[in-house]
Amino acid sequence: MITLDSITKTFQNGEELVTALNNVSLQIAQNEFVAIMGTSGSGKSTLMNVLGCLDTPTSGQYDLDGNNVAELDDDTLSHIRNKYIGFIFQTFHLLPKLDVVGNITLPLRYSDVSDKVAQERANNLIERVGLSHRKHHKPFEMSGGQRQRVAIARALINEPSVILADEPTGNLDSKTSDEIMALLTELHQAGQTIVMVTHEQEIANYAQRVIRMKDGQVIEDTQNQTGTL
User: Fold this and answer.
1) Average pLDDT over residues 218-225
2) pTM for the whole thing?
C-alpha cells in the first residue's frame, strides 16, 4: 500500500537548513494499523504530511497504492489525496453551518459521485458510526466524541485506501477516547488501512505496529503485542 524509499525533507529556517526527515524508508501493507510516535520535533508530523500528500519530499520516492507521488504537481497531488486518503484530525475540522450529513458528504462535492450515491453513502456511514439520531444536528449541538465520529465518517466517504489519523483522541476525555479507538479498531478489522500519529502510549497500544521517530529518523519499528491483532 505505502512504500517510502530514502525520503528526506529539508526546509530553510532563516540561515539554518533544517532536516525534518532524514533518509526514511518504510513500508505499510494493506489493512495494517500503524501508530507513529515521537516527541515534538521528531519528524512524525512531517512524515504524516508527506504520507497525506500535503507536502512533497526534498528527495526520495513515495509510492502510494501503485502511484509514485513524490514528484507530482499540486493539482495531481490534490486528486491523489481525494481519491486515496481519508483524514481524521485532532480538532475535527467540521464546518459549523453544515449538519452531520453536510459535513460527511463535503469531500464528494469535488468528485463525480451523484447526489443520490452521496446520500446513500452518508446514511450508511452515519449508521456505522452510531449517529443515526444526530444526522441533522450541527457540530455545536454535539459532544466532542460525536463530532469525531462525524469526522471519521467524512474520512470514509470517498472509500479511501488509507486513513491518516493525526492525534484523533487529543481533544477527548479517556472514556470517549476509548470509544473512538474501539471504532477505529472495528474499521481496521473490517479491512481499513490506518496510520495514526499519537503521543499517548495507551492509544498506540490499539495499533498492531508502532513506529517511533527521533531527529527525523525511524529509530524503532515493532509489532505491538497488545494491538488489534
Assistant:
1) 89
2) 0.90
